From TrEMBL:
This is Gfo/Idh/MocA family oxidoreductase. InterPro entries: Gfo/Idh/MocA-like_OxRdtase_N (IPR000683), Gfo/Idh/MocA_Oxidoreductases (IPR051450), GFO_IDH_MocA-like_dom (IPR055170), NAD(P)-bd_dom_sf (IPR036291). Pfam families: GFO_IDH_MocA, GFO_IDH_MocA_C3. It comes from the Bacteria. The lineage of its organism: Bacteria, Bacillati, Bacillota, Bacilli, Bacillales. Residues 5-124 form the Gfo/Idh/MocA-like oxidoreductase N-terminal domain. PANTHER family: BILIVERDIN REDUCTASE A. It comes from Paenibacillus oceani.
Amino acid sequence: MASTVRVGIIGLGNWGECHLEAFHALPHAEVAAVADPRPDRLDVAKIKYDVSSCYTDYNELLERDDIDLVSVVTTEHLHLDPVVKALRSGKHVLVEKPVSTRLSEAAEMHRVALEQGRYVMPGHLLRFDPRYADIRRAIADGEIGRPVSMYMKRAREQHLFATYSRTHTVYELMIHDIDLAVWYAQSRVRTVRAYGRSPSGSEAPEVLWACLEFENGVLAFLHSNWMTPDRAGIAIADQIEVIGSGGTASFETSNSGLQLWNETGRTTPDTNIHIKTLHKQTAGSLREQLLYLCDCLGRGEAPDYVSFEDAIHGVEIADAIVKSAAGDGEIRL
Ligand SMILES: NC(=O)c1ccc[n+]([C@@H]2O[C@H](COP(=O)([O-])OP(=O)(O)OC[C@H]3O[C@@H](n4cnc5c(N)ncnc54)[C@H](O)[C@@H]3O)[C@@H](O)[C@H]2O)c1
């Protein structure tokens, strides 16, 4: 494959535009085409990013033979068809989290990738955040001993829930921590117990707790919520503590990092996931993830840092969390 990776993006909503921005700023990637049924989104690609090939039907993008990699950034429950068709048309694929909201679909993606000899990488970008990645390294290097118990919190501003209640909170937020917990524990989950609460009466819980017990005895307590008041000005209020037999790794985001104080109050914006910098580069774990993937493809190596088997197990755990929180008690996988 040529050293420049030619990319197609399917789904150009909020996060798809972040993919476009980050790919656009990478030296060894070129966004050859984008697809979204909404013409206004295609106009953004044309005008802001100078993408010349924009399609309302993604099948036209997939018919092209000059595209190496497709990013699938459609709405959570609409990943299967573009992923499978992209693989069958000979492209490698990056599929956003959750890889699917259905276990059978996640397994199908993996099966088709193997059958076609193409790569499908799950978009679990926190594995590319140096803070989370360094916890994994500390575990692997024996710096905190064997993991015993983990606590992971993910909290977002209330106004976002109007959009993201479209999917159960486990697939939207907690899936990040499920992936980290599986990655750190290096084991499969044996039992799941979860609780959800919806102060607004929504079908998807605004507050979700889950306790995972792994086959090797590790415990993980996961907490996701959409309860940060908008006026608190804290984009991301996340926390992690991994207690090992020989030490602890932890960080908390709401009181650290960049703070802006002005007449409208205080804001604590994200600077770790994705930002556009003044010199037209992007920074954050999304960039690191895309860079890693393009590097692997350019060198003809498998992008195996995020295993698809882990992503499939993540969806299996998420399904059990939905059932348990709905009243089914403890679920044994
Ligand atoms: N990794 C992260 O931190 C992160 C952050 C945000 C979102 N996401 C994930 O990214 C995905 C997209 O989320 P979003 O917030 O951008 O949603 P969004 O609703 O803003 O965008 C989804 C886009 O997909 C388009 N779409 C729907 N059907 C399509 C089709 N058949 N062909 C092409 N495009 C189609 C829609 O028109 C829309 O523009 C989800 O899986 C979400 O969970 C990941």
